[in-house]
Amino acid sequence: MWDTSGSSYYDNVRPLAYPDSDAVLICFDISRPETLDNVLKKWQGETQEFCPNAKVVLVGCKLDMRTDLATLRELSKQRLIPVTHEQGTVLAKQVGAVSYVECSSRSSERSVRDVFHVATVASLGRGHRQLRRTDSRRGLQRSTPLSGRLERGSEGERHKDRAKSCSLM
């Protein structure tokens, strides 16, 4: 996993992170409508050029700021509003993303964890129902028993291996 900077200082080295990418998360800030411009002007072209086979997931970040009063006041001074879900959905179709998701790092509902769930499913090229989330912090699990080494190992070994991985149903 690479978190690449959008700064122009990194334009020459950022493409080194793209080979063999299965999924690309293109993120923008819901509370800053001007960040949508970079999705079209910079990230769409760059991802199509350097990793044309990767699945793209468009991510609207800072979902909690859409209803934040201070943010709404600041944007209204510029006669703007936060990016709507509909705008994000339209943009996702425009850039050829397989999904559009919104998240907030401040809440457990619609969290960053959910974004990685969507990206995992997209990179596997499977429908969203083939992985299921659990209530635990471990993330995704199979609905069938684990096979091989994990079944034969001790409970401690199973716990360690499960904590390090994402499982398929």
TrEMBL record:
InterPro entries: P-loop_NTPase, Small_GTPase, Small_GTPase_Rho. Residues 128-169 are annotated as: Disordered. GO terms for biological process: small GTPase-mediated signal transduction. Signal peptide: none annotated. Pfam families: Ras. Keywords: GTP-binding, Nucleotide-binding. The keyword GTP-binding applies. One of its GO terms (molecular function) is GTPase activity. Residues 149-169 have a biased composition (Basic and acidic residues). It comes from the Eukaryota. PANTHER family: RHO FAMILY GTPASE. This is Rho-related GTP-binding protein RhoN. It comes from Fukomys damarensis (Damaraland mole rat).
